[in-house]
Each structure stands twice: as C-alpha cells, then as structure tokens.
Give the backbone structure.
Amino acid sequence: MSMDSDTAAGTGTSPRLDSKVPAGATADKWENHKFSMKLVNPNNKRKFDVIVVGTGLAGASAAASLGELGYRVKAFTFHDSPRRAHSIAAQGGINAAKNYPNDGDSVHRLFYDTVKGGDYRSREANVHRLAEVSVNIIDQATAQGVPFARDYGGLLDNRSFGGAQVSRTFYARGQTGQQLLIGAYSALMRQVAAGTVELHTRAELLDVVLKEDRACGIVTRDLLSGEVTPHSAHAVVLATGGYGNVYFLSTNAMMCNVTAAWRAHKKGAFFANPCYTQIHPTCIPVSDDFQSKLTLMSESLRNDGRIWVPNGMDDARAAADIPESDRDYYLERKYPAFGNLVPRDVASRNAKTVCDEGRGIGPLKNGVFLDFQAVIARDGVEAISAKYGNLFDMYHRITGENPYDQPMRIYPAIHYTMGGLWVDYHLMTTVPGLYSIGEANFSDHGANRLGASALMQGLADGYFVLPYTIGDDLAGLLGQTAVPTDDPVFTEAVRGVEDEQKRWLSINGTRSVDQFHKQLGRIVWEHIGMERDKAGLEQALTDIPTLREEFHSDVRVLGSAATLNQSLEKAGRVADFFELAELMARDALEREESCGGHFRSEHQTDEGEAQRDDENFAHVAAWEWHSEGTAQTRHREELSFEDVALSQRSYK
Amino acid sequence: MGGGHGETISVTLRVWRQDGPDEPGRFDVHHQTISTDASFLEMLDLLNEELNAAGEEPVAFESDCREGICGTCGVMINGRAHGPQKATATCQLHMREFSDGDEIVIEPFRAAGFPVVRDLAVDRSPLDRIIEAGGYISVGTGAASDANLTPVPKVAADQAFDAAACIGCGACVAACPNSAAQLFTSAKIGHLGLLPQGQAERWSRTETMVETMEEYFGSCTNHGECSEACPKEISLDFIAFMNRDYIKAKVRNRALTGQH
C-alpha cells in the first residue's frame, strides 16, 4: 500500500496539479489569457495533427472548430454515425447568461449560481469562463439552424429550470440535446466534406500512446472487422463522456463507458473526484430483473406534479383510493419554501428515505408518486397535454400506465458524473498533449451539476475554449513531426490491445459479461449510491475485487475478434468499470464530508442535510495510477474562493 | 426478482442470422416466455443470455439510448420497420403490444443502401454522406451574430423543428418499397430551408443533397410508407417541399452561375 501524498506532504496543492489559472481578477482572467497565449499562424496549423475521440457535443464541436482553424483533425466515434452520441438524449435545455428576459441575469450571476450549485467544489476561474462563453454558444447554435423555442414575435424564449431564480434556459421542446448535437454534427460533417476532418466511425479507443511522457496517439479497434490500428498526432483530445454506467442501471445510453478515460488514467492522467456522481430524482423505477436501463422523466414535471407517499407502511391501495388524510407530501412538508422544487440531490435522498421506511409504492415498493391530479383539475387535461404530452406518452409506452388517470411512479437514478479526468485551465490532463473535454473531465460542476449546465459545458469546451488553449501548447512543437505509427511505442500498444482481445475470448467461463456488470452495478448502487457510509464503502472495497477476480476467470465471451462481437466490446468496458468502481469507493471513503452528490451519512446537519467540511476538504482529489495491484495515490488541488463566499445551502 | 405487474406471454421468434456482409443468412427459431413489461430489446437481451449460456453466439443488434432519440436501433418486426406501434422506435416498443402465442419475425432493415453487417445490424453510413453533401449552414465557430438579431416567425421555427426531429434511424428507407431516402433527405432540406439562417445555401444545398441521395438510394413513387414507419412522424409535406425546391434549384443555380 503506497502512502498518500496528502499525508506525506501535509496540506496544500500537490506539485503535480498545477491548475495554470492565470493571475488577475476572476472576471478578467480569460480575456487577458486569450491575449497572452501563443498563436499558431494559419499556414502552420496544417502541420499539426489533432485526434479527437468522441463526437458528442464536446467532441463534435471541438473537431469542427479545430478543422475550421486549419488543423488536420482525425475524429473518432465508436457509433455508426457521429450523430448518435448520448448528448442527444438531453431533454431540458441549455443555460446562457443572455438576460433576454431582463430579469437580472448576468455572467456573474450564472457563475455564482454554478459555483454554489456545485456545493463549492469547483474551480472559480473555470466556471467564470464557462459563464462568459455561454452567450456565444446560443449565438453559434442559432446560426447553425438549431430550432430553439421562440415566442410569437419570433425571438428566443427562455424558461426557469432546476430551481433557478432567473429564466436563462434555452430549449428546443424536450429535445434540446438532440438539436444541439445535430448542430455540432452538421458543423463536423461540413469539415469532413472540406477535407479538414478525417472521420472514423465504429472505431473504439482501446489505448492511449505516449512517447517520452507526451501523448502521441491512440490505438483503436474497428468494431466491424476487429482490426486494431495505431493513429498518431501532435495532440489527443478525449471527449468520451461520463461513467454513469458503472451502476449498470442508469439513464445513460447502453454503450456509455469509461474506457477511454480509464485507459488514459492508466497511462498517467490523474482521475479526479470519482465519487461525485449525480442522481436524478425523476426516473421511472426499476420494474424487473430484466431491466436494461432507466428512463428519465424531465425535471420540468416537478413544476406541476406533487410528490407523495402513503403515511402508512406497505399501503397497497391504488393511489385514487388513498384519501388526502393518509398521504404524506413529504417535500412540501419538510421544505415549505422550495417544496417539490428542491435541488436534485435533496429530492433524491428524500425519496430514498421514504422508500427505506417501507412507504414506497408500486409492485416493488420502489417508487414515490408524482401526481398531476391537482393541476389537471385546475388547468384541464388540454393544458397539461400541451406542456407535457410527449413525456406522458413516453411514460405510458414504457409502463403501460396512463399518467392522466393515475400518478406517475418515480425513483432516483444515476444520471451524470461530475468526476472525470483532471484537467488544468487549458483542459490538458496531467499527461502533456492529452486533453479532456465535456463530461469526461472533472472541471466545472464541482460536487453537483445544475440542470441545463451539461450541454453548456460540453459546447463551451469544444467551441470556445479548447480551440484557443490547444494552440498555446502546439505552438511550441512547430517543426516536430508526429511520432510515426511504426515506432515501437505504437507496435507495443497494438500488441497489448490484440492480446487483450485474445484473453477475453480464451477464458470461456460460465457467466455473461452482462451478468457481471449487473452484479457490479448492484454493489456500486448499494454502497456508493445516493448515501454512503464508512462500513458500506469498506464492504464495497471487499466485494468489488472479489467479483472482479471472478470476472477475469469466469466470464464467457464467445465468437471471434475478427467480426462485430458486442460481448467482446463490453468485456473490456466492464473490466474498466470494475477498476473505476474500486477507486470511487476509495475516493468516497477518504472524503470525510458530505457535498453535493456525495452524501456521507456520518456527515449531516441536525436536519439531515449535507454537511461540508471546508477546512479539510475544499480541494479536488485527483488520483494517480501506478501499476496493476498497487493502490492509486491521492493528490489534492486546493480550491480558493475569492468571489463567492462559502455558505451552507438551505432550501427550507 | 420478478413482481412486475404485467402478465407473461409465450412467443415464437424467427430471427435473421447472418455471419457477415457476404455470408448467406437464415432464420433461427426460438421460443421465449416473457413479461409484457419487458421492452422488445430486453426480450432480445434475454434471448442472448440464453444463447450465451448454451454456448451459441448472441444475436447482433444495435441500440444505444433506448429512449427513442439516438436512432441507433431499428429492425423489421413482422415486416414493419420498428414494428407495430405507431410513432415508436424499436427500443420503445414493449411486449404488451404482442399476444400470447404470437409468431414474431425479426429481420434487419432491408435496403440496397443498407448492407447487412451482421445478423440484425446494417450499415447506414450513406445517410451521413447525404448530410456531408450539404446538410448544414456554413457558419464557422465565432462567426455568429447575436441570436436575437434575426427574428424567426414562430410558425416557421415550429415547422423547421418538426423536420429537425428526424433521428436518422433509416426506418423510412427500410419501409419504402423502392428503398428511397426522400423522407430523410427532405427532413434536413426542410429544416434548414424553412429558416432565415438557411437561405443563403438553400438552392445549392438542395441540389447537392438530392443528387448524393440518388447515388445510394432508390426513387420515390409516393407510397407514403416512410412517414407511416417514421418514429417521429415526419410529414410527407417535406418531400413536396424538397421536390419543389429541387426544380427551382436547377433553374436558380444555373442562373446564378450564368449557365443558362
């Protein structure tokens, strides 16, 4: 067991984690820094190769923007088309400090709300930059033809979202993510047509390659032919999304995984705050053992629906048969000021509490009611249908129950992961030349992400931050050619990937990859889910390695490596989830406080709310990989708050 | 675990198996007993668990979001693209749409433009080639003016959205007796052509996209099967819009370049 650098070095930021935040007032940093960064002249840009992995909002916007600038870009997606990335499923909207409604919004207010919403665990300078460029994103997307909602005068409409006190959320019906992704995808395809971006579909990253400690390329496997190929470049950008599927059941798409980030971690990129995961309170509860994923019902439903459970335990009556006197509208009771609109983490934890008490509803007693009878009686079916028709129909299709007649059943589910690869102000990881953007990095949301902020961050990174910062690094490499793909570092990496494929196929055990994934997910949900405690986390640290050993000796992957083989693909992804899960447990164990999505039951206020420990934990925890079988080392980046005063969140 | 509130039904599956693009295919028959609460793809997940346990390779099929928005999934179910439920992608179809004793024939999307990759998975990349040919507005990052500078009439914005709702699943092509991609292509041409931002390239876009479409796909003979199968119910009106714009484009593009 290696010693923590914390303990060794006392407190203070680890020398390995230089955030490179520029000097000066927070509000001026980005503007000044843009001027101080080195530029690459237009004729020289075409001498640089940049690899972008992932084509969601962050990856597609970055690849398109870098292509427009004149870099030689290679974009990779493991989907059949760049348009499939999971950004597409985001429903609610995208925040921007446009202040079109004239209701007092500003860059500073969006910055402030985001730092506070993240429970004071994000880097102020990054968040301020995010708020600054948010306005450019709306302009860019609109110019691309993204059909945001408009009012009758033809101007853009805004709504309040996720408890914000201003209306700063732009939206496109319930399909904002889809429309923004199609915008970024079309910009990307324009560059493919222009020849600045070389697009590789159905290509999965299986290793990151370094030469002399600098990232020089990647190794991919063609998911149709199985061919393993090295690709070299001057810089590598990972835009590969979050790791919510470590829980098996989540609102993430089936293929979402941590593999690219994890393999980068094993090559030296520090992994930050893995225990910061977000639970979304309004998802359809698990219905049976065969369930493959969970479906989100937009948070906007809480604007009109009332959440309740019966007063008594094991009340099996239908909702309509339970009189008002036997109902507990527990959020309205406990939080009279915010009621059903308390933030995601608070709403989620309270649903868990009432279900744990035995007051859960539905066939498996694993849900709470989200009831629209009152608002239907007040506004009529038509008004509700106009607002939520799509969502009600989707609920009906999935559950077979009609939410116009009976309340929805909902329960929290894993939705987003705030942790990810540690990056500096330039979005570069601890490996020179290796960048991470979008959900894959840890940067802007602290311990809790606010609604309508994920789309904003992905596009901010891809359109308006990385294209500037990457030039500062590349300018220093002028005259250097990319490492050739026949260099030993590549041939060795290719052999490693090929050996891995052979290993999965040779185990020939008794259980499928999915069975192991499901079992792992249960452990992670049980012990590193909505509420964590020391005993549970220690249990997880025993259970996960035991199951992992069984996985490596008893998994059954049939077929060949030379064709489309979906079990083989999953085997590698689940192997990485096993290692990540263990790190999540360690990270959660070491963070002896509650903050945002990380709730340690030992650390709560008398009223049961999250209790931070700013004195000891106002820092980023970033983990350094050493080797198989050796525990990672925990490094810390101290967070300083100059513009936002730390305070206890309260929603009473 | 069990305990869902649906009933259990028994169905007979006839599933298309094909080892690779150039290999011959066949139907395999399987019997499944399944809760009506399961989704169609969860039923296939269970089948794959059983196959794997029996030492047979699982059926390859594609899906990702399982929320009907990413467009990755899609198979022919009893001859219908995405199956029997209207406005529903395969991943959102549930077994309660079937009855005890049903026979269910499951095939890949059938179209010359979509070669089979393996079992139920096909190659739909020609759809990306159509987008690449002009399915965008040429505005580089940073070149945009303020978003409220150009008001867009709400009715135009809403109509553009109806077209932009396309998920690119390819069901329209699979449902068409001619394997035509008119609905897909016209959805993009309609989306951009209805917006003020899309006017500068309206005619050139229409011409290049339509002509690229014709390289890969068949011709439209107005059956309307595409719109019937579309999980987003995209209207045939967009095909009319595209056809009208294409004729105009042939004239205008020539006029603009002086080639009469």
Observations:
- The radius of gyration of chain A is 24 Å.
- The domain at 5-89+177-279+416-477 of chain A is CATH 3.50.50.60 (FAD/NAD(P)-binding domain).
- Chain A touches chain B through 84 residues (CB under 8 Å).
- The longest strand of chain A covers residues 408-417.
